[in-house]
Every structure is written in C-alpha cells, then in structure tokens.
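Moderator note: this is an archived Q&A kept for reference. The question asked for a predicted structure of one protein chain; the sequence and the answer are reproduced below.
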Amino acid sequence: MFLLVDANAMVANPLLRGHQWDSVADAVVSEVLDLFVPELAVQETVARVQDTAAARQRGIRRELRNWPQDAREHLQAAITASERFAVEYEQLLRERLEQIGAELLAYPTVDHDVIAGRAIRRRAPFDPGGNGYRDALHWHSFLELLESQEPVDPFAYLLSADKKAFGPSRHAQLLEDVEELGTEWNVEFVSSIHDFTVPGQFLEEKGDLSHRQEQQLRSAITSALHAGGWPDDLDSALAARGGFDEARISTVEALSVDAWDVQVERRSGDLWVSFDVSATCLISFESMEIIDEDLGEYTVNRDTRRWDLSLTGTAYSQGEDLNEIASLRLDESLNDPIDTGEQPAEH
C-alpha cells in the first residue's frame, strides 16, 4: 500500500503535525504503508507557505500605525518571527518528511509530447482552459509508482485537495490511465489527510463518548469556531459569503453536535470522532473602502449578522480527554441579518 501526497495537503498543515500525520508515520515505520512525496510538491509547498507569510507580514505592517506603541512592538515581533519561519521553512519541512519516513520522488520521466497532448485534449488533470501542468507531473509520478511498486497490498492512494484536477468529476478519465497500465493496483483519491485510514488502524467495534467527552467536544468545537476553523479558513469563507473583507464569529448562541462515528485506534486506544455541527452564531463583518489613499481617508463598513451554520469535522481524544479538533469545515450558511444596513465609520 502506498500514499502519494500533493502540495496542497502539506500547505494546509505546513509542518505535518497532529494525530493523523503521526499515525501515518507509525504505519510507515510498521511497514504497512509507503509514503511518497514528489520533489515538485515540496518546492511548491515551500513557495506557497513563503508567499502566504509575506502577505501576512505586509498586512500587519499596513496596520501598525493604527495600534499604540506597546502593541506595535508585539506586532513587529510577530513579523520578525514570521520572517524567520519563512526562511527556515524548507529545512523544517524536509526534516519532518524524513522523520515520518517519506520518500522523495524525482520529477517523472514522462515525455513532453505526452504532457502537451494531455493539455491539448484538456484531458484530466488539465482543466478546460488547458491549465494543470504541475498537476499532470504529479499524476505521472503516481502512474510511475503504479508501474514500479509491487502490489503486495494493492491499494494506492493519491492525496490532493485540488478538486479541479483530482476531484470526483475527473476520476473517470484518470482511472482510464490506470486501466491502460494493466496493473493489479486499486486506486483511490482522498481530499484530506483526515479522510485517509490505514487498514487495521482501528478496532472493528465502534466506541462511545461519555457525557464528559461530549461536553469536552462541544467546548472544543466552540473554541474552534471562534478561532476560525481548521484547516480551511472559516472566517474567510464567511467573509466571502457575506460580501465583506473580514469576518469573525463573535458569539455562538446555539450548538448541536452529532458525533456519528467514533472509532477506537488499535495502537493507542484513542478515540477518533467524526461529527456534524449545527450552530447559530453572531458574526461580525468588516470591509474597508479607500477614499483618498494620499490623505489616508477611508471608510470602514461593519455589519453584524446571525447565521445558522452547518459544519463537519473530526476530533481526537488524548487519553480520556476529547479536546483536539482536527478539522472543522463549513458546509452551508443561512443569512438572517440583525442589522439591515451597513455602519460606515470614517477615519
């Protein structure tokens, strides 16, 4: 069995930390899983993490003058720490990949005319506009593994959150390539590391949550909502849906949790919980409109809305405590505005 990891799966968790990545590492050490990461994915991850850090630093610098001196010193320290992390990130990532037993793959040996032909025909993973060169290289790395690896445990997984390249609508074309190879591999696509389960990782009998663990889960979900979700940026998703630049959940008024799957990890006895959430939240929105950049004149538009949110997520226990949210993603939001108009404030 092997797992090939795309760049976006690493960008979502730049240092590959957490219970799930540790479990993948345990499976590699136990020789029940081979973990492959293309060199291209490493380079792409480093570039994207560094670009994100630079954008974050620019955003903080723009706001420095709006804060008192004591706060500016803390913000400047944050900028310095972010800059240092960006410089050191590639080394940290490579060290982590070595630690979890990942094997780095060189670029695939596919001929340029094959890649060009895929692009011309708009064949997956290329999109209708002919974009997808790097995705095609990842895919051919995967195909080369299918040809070179012995299918003793014939399950091969490609981990990528890129729905345009590797989502369900593209599977039929991609699996045609697999069939043409004539191998014994069974190929599956997963969009998140939290959707990947190593066979034999869990006991067959499902677990149950105690009342105390249910309360811990509710508290952890509430904290995750205030923090903006994980690994997807919940605040940005809410801002986009509301038509604002920024959004923040200020109050969780009601919360209903359905822990529909509780698995017991064979090795540790820890619980892995999949859950659905219905939450009624007060959300603060904000946008800034520049009136005169030279004079520093701008208008801040604010609004507060009550939205009903539907979310899905996963959580882990640590011993008897269920307090680690691994993922919390927005599925749907229903807008019920409290304030019917925007509240501009000029500065």
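Archived answer notes: DSSP finds ten helices and ten strands in the chain.
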